[in-house]
Design brief:
Blueprint lengths: L2 H13 L3 H13 L9 H9 L5 H15 L6 H26 L4 H18 L8 H18 L1 H11 L16 H12 L3 H8 L5 H8 L3 H22 L1
Helix pairs in contact: 3-5, 4-5, 5-6, 5-7, 5-11, 6-7, 7-8, 10-12, 11-12
């Protein structure tokens, strides 16, 4: 991590330890049963970053924080800060991938990621979102590529990631749209659809996906293998 990126993370952590922040976090706890069990932000972040624990439960905590971040209340910025810290490992993976692609200088990538993540969280329609973390990270990467390189590069990156068996005439250019793809894959393999798409389509490594979903790398690898095998079997049965 660069010094600037690391310094921003340290600054967010420091702000989360102030007395004012703690008092506003207490208000968040009172407003949400999902957050009530955590005595302070550190306890919540520790639980969200822990490899063990239900993904559904973690997602409910993130959804509760998003609802608070979107309210016109003193705790709004507090909830946003906790969200950014909770998603930081995944945002760091996105940042490293964007730097590897060379789409912008590090300072612009850093500021862009934070701006797009904040915008996504503030404007997210929870009625249309299943997984908060996956949605934020996907949107940030997409918006950064679009902003820095334009639609042509976004289409190139997306289209080059799709294996032939995922081509479909229902979408422009013969490729599945993101929502359609997720729906089709989820119908076959269930809850691991997002995990598989992150690896097979969007190009994230299993180690990066493990960080995003709070899994060990070994657990992410095994789940990817099982889900990919089920997809392959379903595809072969339909040929």
């Amino acid at each position: 991590m660069s010094l600037a990126w690391n310094a921003i993370h340290d600054s967010l952590l420091q702000s989360s330890r102030t007395l004012t922040f703690q008092r506003r976090f207490e208000l968040l706890r009172r407003n949400s049963s999902s957050l009530a069990a955590f005595r302070d932000p550190a306890a919540l972040l520790d639980a969200l970053h822990r490899q063990s624990g239900s993904l559904d439960w973690k997602n409910e905590c993130l959804r509760a924080l998003v609802r608070e971040a979107q309210r016109a209340a003193p705790g709004s910025d507090t909830a946003l800060t906790v969200l950014l810290l909770a998603l930081w490992p995944g945002l760091d993976c996105v940042r490293r991938r964007l730097l590897w692609r060379g789409i912008a200088v590090p300072a612009d990538v850093t500021s862009g990621i934070l701006a797009h993540a904040t915008e996504t969280l503030r404007e997210m329609d929870l009625g249309r979102v299943n997984r908060v973390a996956a949605t934020v990270l996907q949107n940030v990467q997409r918006d950064m590529i679009r902003a820095c390189c334009g639609e042509a590069e976004l289409r190139r990156v997306t289209s080059s990631s799709f294996p032939e068996e995922l081509r479909d005439e229902r979408a422009p250019g013969g490729h599945l749209s993101a929502n359609l793809l997720h729906a089709d894959v989820e119908r076959v393999i269930g809850a691991d659809a997002t995990l598989v798409i992150r690896v097979a389509v969007e190009g994230f490594t299993q180690a990066e996906v493990a960080v995003e979903f709070g899994l060990s790398e070994e657990a992410a690898r095994k789940r990817c293998q099982r889900a990919t095998r089920r997809l392959r079997e379903a595809h072969e049965n339909n040929v």
